[in-house]
Amino acid sequence: MKITVLGMYGGYPYDNQGTSSYLLQEDGFNLLLDCGSGALLSLEHHLDPMKLDAVLLSHYHYDHIADVGVLQYYWQLNNDEGKKILPIYGHQEDQEHFTALTWPHATKGYGYEPQKPLEIGPFQIQFLRTKHPVTAFAMRITTRERKTFVFTADTAYFSELVPFAHAADLLLTDTNFDATKTGTKWHMTSLESGNLAKAAGVKQLVLSHLPQKIEFSKLQQEAQQAAGRQVIVEVAGVDKSFRV
Ligand SMILES: [Zn+2]
Ligand SMILES: [Zn+2]
């Protein structure tokens, strides 16, 4: 599986880089995971957006769905008489946002049931409800070759993430804070990401959903220290690709 970062900031785009969005490619299948601000522009550098096979959304905060609307227009305006419809998978606990996933002659919303594994092309996806102010789901994505990619989506740290991420080939975490952050938070710190990677025994940790005002090298150092030397720790950046 090839994972390409299309956007990796939390909250809002900054310095020519957008918010949460990742292109997952396996066996010729193109899955867009979250579709934040700037995702469509970034995607165009890698793939004709009409070649997407599906979109999968972790939750309906705008830093994860801002470009869904323009992606729908792209499909509507480039679709040969509406012959192809792009499936967009999202949860159904927010009917207003779920309903908006369907756009005539362009896209159709499909509700996933988080307690059941979901098959999309070559991917099998398991879900875990996260700790976030709105309903959000972490995802464990497995290929036919049993390679595993775990995406925490947006969440505060909670212990169920450890078995969920167990032995993943790649863990991509919401790391919106450095180690000094205290008090109530809805995202993880660099330290929590590193500790999670170590406790779950993952091979590689990629920090994403990054803050605009903290040096990435600081986040990386803190996470690497917590994760230990056996985990490769990297920071997401637009156009960076990872293979598992
Ligand atoms: Zn977010
Ligand atoms: Zn969020």
List keywords for this structure.
22% helix; Metallo-B-lactamas; 3'-tRNA processing endoribonuclease activity; alpha/beta; 244 residues; Beta-lactamase domain-containing protein; zinc; RibonucZ/Hydroxyglut_hydro; 15 strands; Metallo-beta-lactamase, Chain A
Question: Could you describe the 3D structure shown?
Answer:
Keywords: Zinc. It comes from Liquorilactobacillus satsumensis DSM 16230 = JCM 12392. The chain has 244 residues and is of the alpha/beta class. The chain has a single domain (2-243), classed as 4-Layer Sandwich (Metallo-beta-lactamase, Chain A), CATH 3.60.15. Helices cover 22% and strands 30% of the residues. The chain has 7 helices and 15 strands. The chain has helices at residues 39-44, 62-65, 68-78, 95-99, 161-164, 190-200, 216-227, and strands at residues 2-7, 21-26, 29-35, 54-56, 86-90, 107-111, 118-120, 123-129, 137-142, 148-151, 170-177, 188-189, 204-208, 232-235, 241-243. The strands form 2 sheets. Strands 7, 8, 9, 10, 11, 12, 13 and 14 form an 8-stranded mixed beta sheet that branches. β2 (21-26) and β3 form a beta hairpin. The longest helix has 12 residues, at 216-227. The protein is globular, with a radius of gyration of 17 Å. The termini are close together. The model has no long low-confidence stretch (mean pLDDT 97). One zinc ion (ZN) binds next to loops.
Radius of gyration: 17 Å
The number of helical segments is: 7
Query: Share of helix among residues?
Result: 10-25%
In terms of DSSP E residues, the strand content is: 25-35%
Do you know the CATH topology?
Answer: Metallo-beta-lactamase, Chain A
Corresponding CATH architecture: 4-Layer Sandwich
Give the CATH level 1 class: Alpha Beta
Number of domains: 1
Extended strand count? 15
What small ligands are held by the chains?
zinc ion
Helix/strand/pairing class, anyone? alpha/beta
Shape by Cα distribution: globular
